[in-house]
């Protein structure tokens, strides 16, 4: 024992100093650590002060030991986490179970508190039937002495049973119990089977429990986890309780929360193109609207108040949808001129909207209002791109008519010969109408056709600029002054310009515009609406074609003016059609050779050349050449009719118009009529112009006092000369037995004069 005791004492003696030594060491360590708690602590200065006496090897050893200590600490923490992980899970589960038990206890305590409050309120209810002390005393004595009836026994259990049903959320049974209580209260009131005090207590209990059930149902419907059949059951129950407006608002709010939850999970990638994004978003948004409309119609029917609230809610969701589509799909497409991409987005959205019309929701006008600015921007950008592309192609066009390229034929479905720029222009127009077709429902058909007319007008102005004589008029065409166009030098190239514009305006563009009608017909299911739309659209298309043709008339006028000026003026700018060529003839009557004047012979040769070129280019379209020649002849004759200096010299000049001059003038006008009628381009307008010119010349001659009938030969004389001139200029001389017909009025015409006329035909 002594040994053990001594050993214990030694152990105690050894431990005690160590304990106090550790306490002293801890105190010193805390004092040493206070330096790190200072706000002015500087790590670099501290390291320098402590390690300045250490050499490099000692510093490396210190760093290595610190790194090892760090790794050991991390490993110890990892082992601690693994060792305590099971305990952590078990503790978390116990905490969760405890929370559930506490919630149950809270509900039970709340139920008991409500029962106590209801009992306390029932004790203090006074009788409403008779306030006299005598009657009250009698009622109290009667209640104590008589046995309770079945209704009174049921009433005693009604409140407790109803509270239990509400606490256990047995909604259907609670509703049935409330309905039964209301029936009993109504019968008791009608038959006076219950005392007023008991009846009032029953009615108060029903009212409070009804409100409590309504609040409970509202809380259920408000929760995000409530959906489907459970949501509809709660809304139906709330509506049965007489709180329809609140129930409908909660229904829409529940669908809104579900919509928001789905939108949070909807994250389009940067590689998703506009159509796919619009389709996915449309499916999400409009399915939510459709489900909300279905639930509203099923539960609430078509009552105006609820329908109006549903429409407002659906419009708001549609507006939000339109904003997202514009931000992520339409804006970029519109800015880049991607009309097809924009049309695809709009068509997808309108397709989903149309499906909702069966439920009474017309949401397409909302989308139309919000999408229209972006689509119009894409439309304008696309038209501008067509105009710029066509202008660039015109700069490299060789103005030769060719068949459609093999790559175009299958898609273009036409075989007309055009130049390269016109082929490309028509192909772009076809693509444009295919892209615009789905947008007819947005009432953009008229705007598209107006825009395309402006583009075609710009193309015609480009063709006008390609005419050699139009260089001085560049400033007349807006936007074309800085554009380079290859000149159409030859007559064949110039006729190619006319062919491009005429074929596009008369046939190709109107045919392409019919695609809008086909898209419009596809949108109508009612035959009456389809027939009405077709009747209203046909006049618009006819008017649009007239506008195109009137634009081509500018090109035809420029072409005719160019060639008319080439005939009338020489290279020095002097006129070849003056009054002197008729007035001076009477001084040289002996040297007269009866032929049409050289300018009109040149006109005849030019018309023949143009007719020959046009016939080769437009097989089966002779009317085009006929109208062009008719316009050219009329242009020359109008110039003569409106040349005031010419008529001033004829009517008031220093020398009057003599008999020979009148005969030559009359011959020239007859020659114009003759070859125009022979070439089948003689018009009423030309006949009127020529008649007016001859009348003015005859009037000028009559003013000298001479009779024009006395100097003018018979009409056959003029006709024979004209026929002979036409034959000779055409290379078909009239001969009889190998010689000229000496009886011809033109027998005096020399071969030299004919050769000079042919050389002059280079006009």
Automatic annotation (TrEMBL):
Keyword vocabulary terms for this entry: Exocytosis, Protein transport, Transport
A matching Pfam family: Exo84_C
Residue ranges, compositional bias (Low complexity): 744-763
Gene3D superfamilies: Exo84p, C-terminal helical domain, Exo84p, N-terminal helical domain
Protein transport as UniProt keyword: yes
Region entry Disordered, spans: 1-20, 733-763
Transport listed as a keyword: yes
Domain Exocyst component Exo84 C-terminal: 153-362
GO biological process: exocytosis; Golgi to plasma membrane transport; protein transport
A Gene Ontology term for the protein's cellular component: exocyst
Entry similarity comment: Belongs to the EXO84 family.
Protein name: Exocyst component Exo84 C-terminal domain-containing protein
Species: Cuscuta epithymum
